Amino acid sequence: MPNSVDPNSPIYRIRVAVPVHLYDCFDYKLSAEQYQQAHIGARVAISFGRRHLIGVIVEKIPTDVPLNSSFQLKAIDALLDDRAILNEQVLSLLTWSANYYQFPLGEVIQTALPSLLRQGKPYNLLATVWNVLKPGAENELKRSEKQRNAYKLLSVHPQGTSEHLLNLSGIENSTLKALQKKGLIDTALKPQDFSAPPVQMAQMPLTANPDQRLAIQQILKAQNKYQAFLLDGLTGSGKTEVYLQVMQEVLKKGKQVLVLVPEIGLTPQTIDRFQSRFHCHIALLHSGLNDSKRLQAWQYAETGKAAIILGTRSAIYTPMPNLGLIILDEEHDLSFKQQEGFRYHARDVGLYRAALAKCPIILGSATPSIDSYHLVEQGKLTCLELNQRAGNAIMPKMHVIDLKIAKKQHGMSQQLLDEIGKCLARKEQVLIFLNRRGYAPVLLCEQCAWQANCPHCDAHLTLHYQPYSHLHCHHCSTIQRLPSACPACHHTSLKPIGMGTAKVEASLQELFPDQLIIRVDRDSTSRVGSWQKIQEQIHQNKSAILLGTQMLAKGHHFPYVTLVAILDIDAGLLSVDFRAPERTAQLIVQVAGRSGRGEKKGDVYLQTHRPDHPLLLTLIHKDYRAFAKQTLIERQQALLPPYRYAALLRCESRSQENNQQFLKQMSQQLQQQSTPVPLPPASLPLIDIWGPIPAPMERKAGRYQAHMVLLSAERAKMHFYLRHWWQQLLKEKPSDLKISIDIDPQELN
Q1: What's this model's pTM, rounded to 2 decimal places?
Q2: By the 8 A CB rule, do 583 and 334 touch?
Q3: 284: left (phi > 0), else alpha (psi -120 to 50), else beta?
Q4: Are 120 and 43 in contact (CB under 8 A)?
C-alpha cells in the first residue's frame, strides 16, 4: 500500500550501502532530528528483508528531491555513530574500488571496517590498562625473565600502560596474566585517549650512501603532492633506511605514514626497526589480531593518534586524517592481491589513494613487478635505483647444479651437501629453500603404479607424517588416513615420491645429526608466537640449517646466512601461466638475497634439470633488470599484460559442459555489444575474448572450473562495456553456477 504522504511535508531520506551482494544502494527514511544528526560515512542499523544489518550512509538526499509515491520506504532502526567514521577520502576510494573491480559497494565498504564495527558494536570501547599493584617486587621474579621484563616496563609508567602498547613491545598476554595471578599487577578498563603524542627520534639515522641520499632527496621534493616512486634496490641495499629517513621528515610535520608489508611474518621485524628509530604511536593491522585489538588499532589510525600504521593489504582502506606518505614494501609480492571475494590489488588501490591524499607513495622491491616497470616506461612511476649493498656486503655468487648428471643423496646433489658441510664447519648458517610443504607430494605403488589422488580435485594427495601419518589435499583440505597397502593391488610396496620440507628435514637430520635444523613453513608456524621464537633462534649467530618455503624468501634479514640452496626450481620454469617466469625470477633473486648480508660473502646453489634455460642464464650472467627488460619486449610482441588490460572470468559448477555453454553464450553477447560497427579486416576487436576453456586444475573440491580471459588495449572502454555486460550476466546466470570476475588477474589458475 503506498505511503499517505502530505505533499507539503518534507521527506527525510538517506542512501545506505548495505552489505549484500547487490550492486545498488538503498533509500531509507528517518525523522527530521535523525536527518540532522546523520553524517555521510556513519553507520546505521537497518532491516533488509527479514535480516537486521549494519549499513553505511553514502548520501543524504536533499528534501526537495521528489519521491515516487508508489515507493514504500522503510525507516532506519537506529543511527549508530554521531560522526562520520569513514571520511570523504576513504569513501571516494571505496567507491572507485567497487566500480573498478566490479564488486558491490556495500560489501566493499565492509572491507574498510573492523569486525566489531561491522557487527554494530559501539565505537567507544574501553581500553584495557595494566597497573603495578606492588612496587619494587623485582626480586620475586628471578626465575622468569619475561615476567621480570614486563614488570620493569610497567614500573616505568605508574599511571598504567595500555595492553596495546605492551603487546607492541613484545609482551604477551600470558605473561601479564601470570603477573596478575601473583598479585603484582592488575587490569582496569578506561576510556581511550585518542590524543596524538609528539613524535621523537629514538636514535639517529644511519649515514646514507650516495644512492640512498639521492633517493631520499627525490622523494622529499614531492612531500606535499602526489608522486609515485619505484625504489628498485638490490637485496640488502638499504631500502628500509630510505623509508625511515623519508618517514622522519613526514612525521616531523605531524603527518601519518601508512606502511604495507605482504605478510604478517614481516611485521615483527619491521615494527622493531620503527620502534628503535621513532618514539611515537604505532598501530598494527593484520588478520592475526583478535577483534578488540584490531578495532583499537583502527581507531588509533582513524583519530590520528597513531603516527605510523603498519599492516597487510586490507590496511590500505584504513581512514587516516593526516596521511602524508604510503610505503608498499616488496611491492611485487602476490600477497598484495586478494584472491577471493573482493579481488582488489593493494598496490593499484594504494596509487589511487596517494593521488586522493595528494601525498607521495613508495613502491619498494629488489625484484619489481613487470607491471611496475611498464608504469616507469609510461612515466607514471619515477624509478630510483639502489645499486650498492649496505655496509661491506657484496652480492652472492650463483652456481647452477645440473641434476641430470650430479651424484645425488636424498634428492640433494653431493656437491651441494659438501658445500653445506664446509659452511657449517665455519660456524655459518645455511638456508635451503623448497616451495613444497609436507613429506612427499605423491604416494605411489611400485607394483601397479597406483597414485594417491584427491577424490574431489585433479591433484595428488600430499603425504604428511606430522602431527600424525595422513594424506592431505592442499587444495580442498581433504584428509585421508595413510593406507597400509595399495587399494588397487593390495601390495604393501607404497613409496613416497618427490620431496616436501618435512622429508628434507628428516634427510638433513640424518646427514648432519649434530646440527640445529629450523623448518619454517605453514605447518611449523601455525601456533601463535612460533614464528617469533624461530626468528630469535636464527639471530643467535650459531651454525644452523634453515629450511623453508616462501615464508623465508621475503624481506628477512639473516646476517649469518652465507649459503643459500634452491632445491627445485623446474616447476616455475615449465608452468602454463605467462607470469610464471616472472614469479620464478623474483623468487630466485629474493631467496638468493638472503645470503651474504653480513660481513662474509654469500653463495647460491640452484638445482635444476634445465641448466640451459634462458631465464636462468639471464639471471646468472646478467641480472633481474635485464630479465625484466627482455620480458617487457616479449609481452609487447605477444600483446599480453601490461600492454593490454585483462579480466578473468571464473565459472564453476557440477558440470563442465554447463560452464562452457553459459560462458560461450555470454561471450557472444559481449562481442555483439562491444563491436557496434563492422571492423576493418586487419584490426583487433575492442575486447579480445580467449576461451572459454577448462581451468588448469579442471576439478577442485568436486566442482568443475572453466575460465574466460578478456583482453583490451583500451581500459576505459573495456570497463564501460564490461560493467553493463557483467550485471546482465549475473541476472541470466543459472542458480547452480558460481561465477566471479577478476580485474587485472595475477594468476590464471
Answers
A1: 0.89
A2: yes
A3: beta
A4: yes
